[in-house]
Write a structure and sequence with these properties.
The chain has 183 residues and is α+β, with helices and mostly antiparallel strands. The chain contains 8 helices and 3 strands.
C-alpha cells in the first residue's frame, strides 16, 4: 500500500514503516593489503597515517554531515506545517500518540496530508483499513499499532512502544512524501 505512487506521481518512495529511519553509519573500510605492501614506493607509516587518521576523519565527517542533514530536513517546511496545523511539534506528537493509543485492537495511527485543504491531519484506522481509501488523506507517516509490531518487546504496553517509536522515525522519508504531495 505505501509503495504505490504518492500524490499521482509515478515516483516510488521508500515505505515510511519498515525502514524506520535506521540509517547505517559509514565505516572505515579495511585496506585489501597491508600498510607496508607499497614499500619502497610508499612506506607503511604514510599508509597507516593516511588510512587510520585522514581517511577515518573523512568517514566520520560524512556521518556527522548526514546526521545534520536529516535533522535539517525534519526542521524545514514539514516542521513549519506541523507548527501551523498543530501548534507545535510537541502537540503534534501528543495528538498522534493519543490517536494511536486509542486504536481499539489493531490498526494504525497516521499523519496524513489533506490535499483539498493543504493541511496536515491526524487519523487512526482500525485493522488494515487504508488511510487514503477511508479518509482521503495521503499517508505521510504511519505508526503500526498491531500487537505484532511491539508485543515481544513492549508486551501489552502500547504507550511505551509509542514513546519509543519517535526515536526511529525516518523524517527524511516523511519530508519527501510531504514535498511530493504539495506539488
Amino acid at each position: 500500500m505505501l509503495s504505490r505512487a504518492v500524490c499521482g506521481t509515478s515516483r516510488q518512495l521508500a515505505p515510511a514503516l519498515g525502514y524506520l529511519g535506521s540509517r547505517q553509519k559509514h565505516s572505515l573500510p579495511d585496506l585489501p593489503y597491508d600498510y607496508g605492501a607499497l614499500e619502497p614506493h610508499i612506506n607503511a607509516q604514510i599508509m597507516q597515517l593516511h588510512h587510520s587518521k585522514h581517511h577515518a576523519a573523512y568517514v566520520n565527517n560524512l556521518n556527522v554531515t548526514e546526521e545534520k542533514y536529516q535533522e535539517a530536513l525534519a526542521k524545514g517546511e514539514l516542521l513549519e506545517a506541523i507548527k501551523r496545523d498543530f501548534g507545535s511539534f510537541d502537540k503534534f506528537k501528543e495528538k498522534l500518540t493519543a490517536a494511536s493509543v486509542g486504536v481499539q485492537g489493531s490498526g494504525w495511527g497516521w499523519l496524513g496530508f489533506n490535499k483539498e485543504r493543504g493541511h496536515l491531519q491526524i487519523a487512526a484506522c482500525p485493522n488494515q483499513d487504508p488511510l487514503q481509501g477511508t479518509t482521503g488523506l495521503i499517508p505521510l507517516l504511519g505508526i503500526d499499532v498491531w500487537e505484532h509490531a511491539y508485543y515481544l518487546q513492549y508486551k501489552n504496553v502500547r504507550p511505551d512502544y509509542l514513546k519509543a517509536i519517535w526515536n526511529v522515525i525516518n523524517w527524511e522519508n516523511v519530508t519527501e512524501r510531504y514535498m511530493a504531495c504539495k506539488k
